[in-house]
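Section handout 9: paired folding examples.
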Amino acid sequence: MKIEILSPFFKCQEEQTVFLSHFYSLPDYKSLVTTEARFQLRLKSTADPAVFQQVKDICDNWNTSCKVVD
């Protein structure tokens, strides 16, 4: 599963590190790629649908959005 996440505004590098660490800790995490003002999060193909809800909750907490693209 590939999820596209719009990058929120970060005041400093530490904020970005904290934001990204939430995705690295997901149980089905595979990779995270930065492209322009977006992040592409890849999860294992067997990812539990509940994981997308976790991603959405993280994005909501940072006032940004996400969508499944693959």
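Moving on to protein 2 of 2.
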Amino acid sequence: MLNFGFTSLASLTLVYLNIIVLDEEILILICFITFNWIAFNRLGENIFSSLKNQASILENIITNSLNSLLDKLLLAIQLKKKVKNLSIDFQALKNRFIKLSSVVLSKFPDHLAQKLNSAYPKRLQYVWRFEEQTVKLLALLLNKKLDKLISTQKFFTNNLKVVNFIRINKITLRERFKTI
């Protein structure tokens, strides 16, 4: 670097010889350059370390945000794979359900026929038992009615002596004797 004293002496000589004209703008420029040069020499290291700290802070922030973004992208990729696998699983489930439905539907008529074949004999047996009981009941009712009819006929024949019933009684007695 140039010596400060030498620079000042050279400047004064140039101003004194009117080679450099000092007006307001030039004085402001000289002050500005001098201020920057002094500030750079005295505060340069502090500014450099401050800028370096800010740069490292920004680097950490950017690194953290990029790492976070990378983690989120990896998570999104994993979720996309899981959704794809889920879609494939649902497709396989659909295919298995279709196969199961077709098997069940193909075997349903056989199952229904087997079920009817097992239930139909039971129903027939129930109907046959019901018919037997009904026949017995009708026979008992008919027997009771015939007993009442015979007792009524005997009453009319023997006690009341109705002529028509006496004739019917004699005819039935003759038929019985003929069969014996």
